[in-house]
Amino acid sequence: ADRYVVIGNPVAHSLSPTIHARFSEQTGEALEYTTLLAPVDGFAQSVGAFFSGGGRGANITLPFKVEALRFADEASARAKHAGAANFLAVRDGRVFADNTDGAGLVTDLRANLGFTLRGARILLLGAGGAARGVIAPLTQAGPSRIVLANRTLAKAQELADHFPGLVACGLESIANAPFDLVVNATSTSTRGEALALPDNLFAPGALAYDMAYGPAARAFVERARALGAARASDGLGMLVEQAAESFQLWRGKRPQTAPVLAELRARA
Ligand code: ATR
């Protein structure tokens, strides 16, 4: 069977092998998908060895997404926009990079959470790699505005210079509240740090969304509900949807995500 991996550090607890195993069963596409732990300073060597040994594709997780883009021979526009890649594929001996995270978020919001992005007022928290990957897809979905708030204002401003129409501000002085959607793309969730939020953020019916999933997302989800968010979700659906987008790019078949997401939710 064709071989695929998710490369990261750490990577042992990744749900991606389970997700792709289900996609493989569903579609009848025979493939093997496993984890590959790369040393923090050894990404290029690990992924190079995997591809020269016949590997067909890789998903990339922390901390290698920026390096993955540099490693590739070619990249999609959305990967270049994001400055990072979570997807690599070998095509005619060349390594192609893409970024399916933003599409994963947009599909989860629309299809799984029933959220209407068109006309929505969106607040994106954070200006690191995770935020950067989703700005373009969110912008393309036609919101009425996107405000980017970051602890370090200069980093938000730098991104606003790249993406016209984006309003940049600091975390203590969030502009243009309230919002219909508040997305946490800071690393506070995965690192277990607290994120201070003002109490006027959420419009009636608003959705709060943390790009992390499981216990990591709990603090933000609970805080958002306490501050009046009508709904709050972790990022498990985004993980499954970026996987589906990756699977389709590799195999040309779109798997069904709903049963896989339901199975993972039932386990948690
Ligand atoms: P990632 O790839 O996960 O986005 P990153 O590129 O290191 O990681 O970016 C981390 C993001 O989380 C940044 O926006 C960071 O804010 P700064 O630019 O001010 O560093 C944000 N962040 C990290 N810890 C934070 C905290 N304790 N409070 C608020 N924001 C935090």
Give a description of the structure.
- With about 270 residues, the protein is α/β, with parallel strands linked by helices.
- The protein folds into 2 domains: about 1-100 and about 240-265, Rossmann fold; about 100-235, Rossmann fold, CATH 3.40.50.720.
- The protein is built from 11 helices and 12 strands.
- It has helices spanning about 15-25, 45-50, 65-70, 75-80, 100-110, 130-140, 155-160, 190, 220-225, 235-250, 260-265, and strands at about 1-10, 30-35, 55-60, 75, 85-90, 95-100, 120-125, 145-150, 165-170, 180-185, 200-210, 230-235.
- The strands form 2 sheets. It has a 6-stranded mixed sheet with strand order 2-1-3-5-6-4, sandwiched between helices. Strands 9-8-7-10-11-12 form a 6-stranded parallel sheet, with helices on both faces.
- Helix 9 links the parallel strand 11 and strand 12.
- Helix 1 (about 15-25) packs across helix 10 (about 235-250), helix 5 packs across helix 6 (about 130-140) and helix 5 crosses helix 10 (about 235-250).
- The structure holds 2'-monophosphoadenosine-5'-diphosphate.
- The site of 2'-monophosphoadenosine-5'-diphosphate has 15 residues, from helix 6.
Named CATH topology of the largest domain: Rossmann fold
Give the cofactors and ligands: 2'-monophosphoadenosine-5'-diphosphate
What top-tier CATH class of the largest domain fits best?
Answer: Alpha Beta
The main sheet orders its strands as 2-1-3-5-6-4
Q: How would you characterize the largest beta sheet? A: 6 strands, mixed
So how many helices?
11
Any idea what the radius of gyration is? 18 Å
Q: Let me know the CATH homologous superfamily of the largest domain.
A: NAD(P)-binding Rossmann-like Domain
**What is the β-strand count?**
12
Overall shape: it is globular
**Overall SS class:** alpha/beta
What low-confidence regions span 5 or more consecutive residues with pLDDT below 50?
none
Instruction: Examine the secondary-structure arrangement and name the CATH architecture of the largest domain.
Output: 3-Layer(aba) Sandwich
Q: Helical amount among residues, as a percent range?
A: 40-55%
- How many structural domains in the coordinates? 2
